[in-house]
């Protein structure tokens, strides 16, 4: 079982890594080809798509993952997936129709205000952008639903294949589109990147094997309740986690501020999302264990997974924050140097917030999506309040501080709920040890920047931080023997060169 979870986690990491790199690569391509303002316009446009997909997705991708994993045999899994595909298709078509209506209204000059908050381009270009965003949103809705079904079936090999295909298409199409057609071309590249998963969803819906006995009314009722809370929670969470700050930044500071803020968020994602990719297989695993009544196994898996994620994200986030003055202009260009302070803050806080990902999977597996909704509702209120107060008053750094404080509050609420209400204690003591070790490693990396000028400092900073971190983790006994065994098992699944690179880590942390 442990080997299967590790293999699925690795395949899920490959898939999620492709998605993450596609998002980050799009921002980097935009920064290098369109400049700070163009990056801001692309970011705000894609944020609109994210919000629309979250609303129109109806919470069904997470719902089918949760209940398909519990369904048992393949025939019942396909029937369950087919049962909720129709509302997903309807939502995608509605979103596409809304985008088409907006484009038609713009063409007649009647609703010019629709796009005035987003892109200062000619009327024709604005019409094209609305159509592109509609296609992107519809394709993402279908694709995300299908990937949710595959996760429930634990077919992570198919997920990896689809997302890698989408990544390749998106990177090539975005680069060519940005160079040839500017902002509209870059956005069209994102639309093409969503097509492989969307086409796979259509193909699965037409599969005659899905015409098995439909799920019972009782199960459908459970799924609808779970989906309702999941959907509402996702919409509220979007105000906290989905870059809501960029809307307020654009209104008060302009597109340049949006571009600078996005650069910081992109680096925060690159630093912390990598380890989180390993958690993709946890929801079906927790759901399976919960259905079998294996409570002790769920608690032990939660504590261990939280420790291991913290072991990876704490040094990545705090370390990147320490070397941000060199990394930011190196990746995005010298024009993005003003983003260094806010990027450092975002990356450091993201490292702390990332540890809550395991808890989110646990809450969903135990069918407590109601907590996600209520906590996210509180976070959304705080985010909107900060957007109307802190962002206009303090600009870029105000947006970063607001995001940091709200996310830390959300993480604290989640840890309290999981520990007190679900009876799954978080490993606070070990998390503290790992944070201390990562902080000392970040201090070592920052010292190298003071001693060596320019990008060459990275050649010394990265090895120094890794060495200090490994020694501190070992001396503080921050990981258990079982944690090290899991790391060893995960490394054994990696291809040869990657596995060899990970062996020094195990030697450093071995007690």
TrEMBL record:
<feature type="transmembrane region" description="Helical">
    <location>
        <begin position="338"/>
        <end position="359"/>
    </location>
</feature>
<feature type="transmembrane region" description="Helical">
    <location>
        <begin position="264"/>
        <end position="287"/>
    </location>
</feature>
<dbReference type="Pfam" id="PF01943">
    <property type="entry name" value="Polysacc_synt"/>
</dbReference>
<feature type="transmembrane region" description="Helical">
    <location>
        <begin position="226"/>
        <end position="244"/>
    </location>
</feature>
<feature type="transmembrane region" description="Helical">
    <location>
        <begin position="458"/>
        <end position="477"/>
    </location>
</feature>
<keyword id="KW-0812">Transmembrane</keyword>
<feature type="signal peptide">
    <location>
        <begin position="1"/>
        <end position="24"/>
    </location>
</feature>
<feature type="transmembrane region" description="Helical">
    <location>
        <begin position="159"/>
        <end position="180"/>
    </location>
</feature>
<dbReference type="InterPro" id="IPR050833">
    <property type="entry name" value="Poly_Biosynth_Transport"/>
</dbReference>
<keyword id="KW-0472">Membrane</keyword>
<keyword id="KW-1133">Transmembrane helix</keyword>
<feature type="transmembrane region" description="Helical">
    <location>
        <begin position="371"/>
        <end position="394"/>
    </location>
</feature>
<feature type="transmembrane region" description="Helical">
    <location>
        <begin position="431"/>
        <end position="452"/>
    </location>
</feature>
<keyword id="KW-0732">Signal</keyword>
<feature type="transmembrane region" description="Helical">
    <location>
        <begin position="46"/>
        <end position="69"/>
    </location>
</feature>
<feature type="transmembrane region" description="Helical">
    <location>
        <begin position="400"/>
        <end position="419"/>
    </location>
</feature>
<feature type="transmembrane region" description="Helical">
    <location>
        <begin position="186"/>
        <end position="206"/>
    </location>
</feature>
<dbReference type="InterPro" id="IPR002797">
    <property type="entry name" value="Polysacc_synth"/>
</dbReference>
<protein>
    <submittedName>
        <fullName>Lipopolysaccharide biosynthesis protein</fullName>
    </submittedName>
</protein>
<dbReference type="GO" id="GO:0005886">
    <property type="term" value="C:plasma membrane"/>
</dbReference>
<feature type="transmembrane region" description="Helical">
    <location>
        <begin position="308"/>
        <end position="332"/>
    </location>
</feature>
<feature type="transmembrane region" description="Helical">
    <location>
        <begin position="89"/>
        <end position="109"/>
    </location>
</feature>
<feature type="transmembrane region" description="Helical">
    <location>
        <begin position="129"/>
        <end position="147"/>
    </location>
</feature>
<keyword id="KW-1003">Cell membrane</keyword>
């Amino acid at each position: 079982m442990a080997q299967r979870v590790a293999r699925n986690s690795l395949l899920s990491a490959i898939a999620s890594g492709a998605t993450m790199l596609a998002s980050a690569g799009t921002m980097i391509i935009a920064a290098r080809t369109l400049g700070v303002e163009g990056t801001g316009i692309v970011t705000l446009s894609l944020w609109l798509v994210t919000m629309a997909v979250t609303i129109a997705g109806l919470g069904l991708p997470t719902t089918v993952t949760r209940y398909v994993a519990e369904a048992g045999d393949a025939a019942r899994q396909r029937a369950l997936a087919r049962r909720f595909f129709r509302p997903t298709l309807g939502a995608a078509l509605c979103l596409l129709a809304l985008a088409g209506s907006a484009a038609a209204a713009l063409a007649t000059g009647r609703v010019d205000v629709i796009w005035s908050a987003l892109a200062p381009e000619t009327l024709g270009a604005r019409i094209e952008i609305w159509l592109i965003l509609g296609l992107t949103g519809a394709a993402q809705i279908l694709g995300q639903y299908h990937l949710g079904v595959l996760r429930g079936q634990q077919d992570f090999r198919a997920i990896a294949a689809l997302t890698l295909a989408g990544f390749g298409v998106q990177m090539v199409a975005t680069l060519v589109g940005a160079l040839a057609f500017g902002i509209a071309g870059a956005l069209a590249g994102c639309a093409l990147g969503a097509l492989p998963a969307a086409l796979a969803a259509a193909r699965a819906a037409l599969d005659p094997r899905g015409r098995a006995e439909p799920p019972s009314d009782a199960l459908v009722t459970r799924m609808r309740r779970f989906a309702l809370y999941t959907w509402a929670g996702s919409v509220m969470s979007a105000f906290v986690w989905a870059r809501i700050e960029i809307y307020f930044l654009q209104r008060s500071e302009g597109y340049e501020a949006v571009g600078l803020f996005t650069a910081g968020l992109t680096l925060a994602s690159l630093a912390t999302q990598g380890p989180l990719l390993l958690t993709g297989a946890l929801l079906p695993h927790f759901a399976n264990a919960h259905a079998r009544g294996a409570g002790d196994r769920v608690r032990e898996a939660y504590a261990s997974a939280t420790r291991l994620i913290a072991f990876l994200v704490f040094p990545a986030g705090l370390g990147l924050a320490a070397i941000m003055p060199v990394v930011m202009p190196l990746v995005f260009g010298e024009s993005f140097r003003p983003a260094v302070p806010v990027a450092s803050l975002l990356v450091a806080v993201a490292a702390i917030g990332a540890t809550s990902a395991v808890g989110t999977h646990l809450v969903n597996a135990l069918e407590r999506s109601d907590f996600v909704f209520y906590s996210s509702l509180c976070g959304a209120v705080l985010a909107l309040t900060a957007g109307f107060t802190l962002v206009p008053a303090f600009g870029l750094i105000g947006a970063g501080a607001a995001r940091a404080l709200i996310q830390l509050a959300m993480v604290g609420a989640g840890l309290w709920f999981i520990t007190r209400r679900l009876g799954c204690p978080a490993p606070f003591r070990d998390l503290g040890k790992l944070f201390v070790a990562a902080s000392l490693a970040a201090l070592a990396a920052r010292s190298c920047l003071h001693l060596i000028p320019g990008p060459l400092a990275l050649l010394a900073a990265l090895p120094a931080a890794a060495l200090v971190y490994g020694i501190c983790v070992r001396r503080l006994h921050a990981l258990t023997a079982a944690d090290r065994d899991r790391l060893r098992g995960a490394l054994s699944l990696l291809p040869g060169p990657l596995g060899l690179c990970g062996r020094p880590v195990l030697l450093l942390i071995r007690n």
